[in-house]
Each structure stands twice: as C-alpha cells, then as structure tokens.
Design a protein that fits this description.
Residues 89-200 form the Phosphatidic acid phosphatase type 2/haloperoxidase domain. This is Phosphatase PAP2 family protein. InterPro entries: PAP2/HPO, PAP2/HPO_sf. It holds the Pfam family PAP2. This protein is mainly alpha-helical. Helix content is 74%, strand content 0%. The protein contains 8 helices and no strands. Helix 1 crosses helix 8 (182-213), helix 5 (86-110) runs antiparallel to helix 6 (130-146) and helix 6 (130-146) packs across helix 8 (182-213). The longest helix is centred in the last third of the chain and has 32 residues, at 182-213. The radius of gyration is 18 Å and the shape is globular.
C-alpha cells in the first residue's frame, strides 16, 4: 500500500485524540487549569507585538489559511494524478474534506468564545483552530505519503523542517493576532494527527472499494 502506517502511529493517534478530547471537555465546562494557562499566554503575546512581528505573523497566517490548505492538497493531488496515482489523490482530498466536517462539529459542540481583541473577521468558535488543523492535515499527509517515498535523506529532512516550521509559525500567528488561545492550536494539531492516522488506517478499504467499483481505477496502483 502506498499509504501505510505503523501500530505505533495508531497508538500515538489514540493518545492524541484522548488528550484533545479532554481539552475540549475542560474548555466546554470552563475548568480553571487550561483557562489560566491560555489567559497567561494571551497576555504575554499582547505585550510583544511589533510592526515587524505583524508582518511576519500575517504571512504565517496566510500560509495556514483554510483556503490555502485546500490549494496545497489540490496541488498534491494533481501531482499524484500526473504520476498515475489516482486513488492516493482521491484519499488526500477525502481526508481534508472529511476532516473539516469533523472539526466543524467539534467547534459547534464546544462553542468557545474568541479571545479579547480578536479581528472582526474571526467571529466563529475558537476551539480548535481551523487554520492550524487544516495546515497540519497537509503536513501529516506529506509525512505519511510523500517523504517516505523520497530516497534522499537530506531532502526528507528539508521537507520536514520546512513544513514543521511553517506549522509552528502559523500556530504562533493565531495566538499573536488574538484569533485563538494556546489550547486551541494544540488541540488542532492533536486532532489533525488523529484524523490523518484514522484516514490512513481506512485507506486500504477505500482503495479496494474504488478498484472494485470504478472501472477506470481497476488497475491503479494502491
């Protein structure tokens, strides 16, 4: 299988999901511990804002924009299609679309208010961050689907370093602009990892189903 994961990754995904769900419950019921930490970090970021920081963080926010995340996935899917890997391309698109639906449900259930001072454009529920979730969906898909198939260790390290750096900068930018609390961004990463691993676990069934039911994909590599 082109998309494959280990039992260790499955265990990590279960732990990640449990932590993220625990955070969601604590925040939903206004438990003091995550709220105190979030407010402390929020106040600290409010004191370090500068003109230069605004520019850097605006770029980071743009790179993690949910629309841009979809563009990343479409580009990746296009490359896979050119390489005649149609089923992995379908999987990547299905993963981010289904993930966005899952995240929307979590946001509705938790219904957390945005931090004080957020932009008017950021009016929806705060927990978890859609910017961070979508971007890390892309990052984890690349880590599972792309980098393992690259022969050069240097290239693998470079891709991982660039993607993780962009991911961390986007996390910081959402806190910097008062769009999210710290826990919103952490939960988004945990949910993204859990979702990608779950999706990868279901990939063999999806691949076989598509091969058996779509004639054009019958002989596709899976």
């Amino acid at each position: 299988m082109i998309v494959s994961i280990t039992n260790k990754q499955r265990r990590q995904a279960v732990i990640s999901c449990i932590i993220a769900m625990t955070l969601a419950i604590l925040i939903k019921f206004n438990v003091i511990l995550p709220a105190m930490l979030d407010n402390s970090i929020h106040r600290w970021f409010a004191n370090i804002q500068t003109g230069y920081g605004d520019v850097v963080m605006a770029i980071a926010t743009f790179l993690g924009n949910p629309v841009v995340d979809v563009v990343y996935i479409l580009i990746l899917a296009g490359i896979l299609i050119i390489a005649k890997l149609h089923i992995p391309a379908i999987w990547t698109i299905a993963t981010i679309i289904s993930g966005d639906v899952f995240l929307a449900l979590i946001r509705i259930i938790v219904g957390r208010t945005r931090p004080v001072g957020h932009l008017l454009a950021d009016s929806s529920s705060s927990f978890p961050s859609t910017h961070v979730f979508g971007l890390f969906i892309v990052i984890f898909i690349i880590a599972i689907l792309v980098t393992p198939n690259i022969n050069s260790t240097y290239t693998q390290v470079l891709i991982n370093w660039i993607s993780i750096t962009i991911g961390l900068m986007t996390m910081l930018s959402r806190i910097y602009f008062n769009a999210h609390f710290f826990s919103d961004t952490v939960a988004a990463v945990l949910f993204a990892y859990s979702w990608v691993i779950l999706s990868a676990s279901l990939y063999p069934k999806l691949a076989i189903f598509l091969q058996n039911h779509i004639a054009l994909l019958k002989h596709d590599e899976i």
